[in-house]
Amino acid sequence: MTDWVSREDRSGHLRLALVLMADAVFFGGASRLDLLAPLTVRVVAMTIIVWLVWRVPPRDWRIRWGSGLLVTGMLAVPLLQLIPLPWSIWTRLPGHGSLVPVYRYLGETPWRPISITPDRTVNSLAALLPGIAGGMLGLRASSRSAGIVLAAVFGLALVSAAIGLAQVADGSNSSLYFYTITNRDSAVGFFSNANHQSLFLCSAIVITLFLRAEIVAQRPRYATATAIAAIGVVAFLIVSIVATRSRAGISLSALAVLGGFSIGWFGRFPLTKRWVMTGALGGLVAATVVLYLASEALFATPGDLPDVRLQNIPFFWRMIIDYFPFGSGLGSFDPVFRSYETPAVLNFTYLNNAHNDYAQILIETGAFGLVLLVGFFACWVISFVRSWEPLGRRATFGARAPRAASLITLLLLIHSAVDYPLRTAALSTLFAFCFALMTRGSPDRGISTRDPNAEDAAEGDGTERDDTQSAAALVKRLSFRHP
Question: Looking at residue 287, what is its pLDDT?
Answer without folding.
Answer: 60
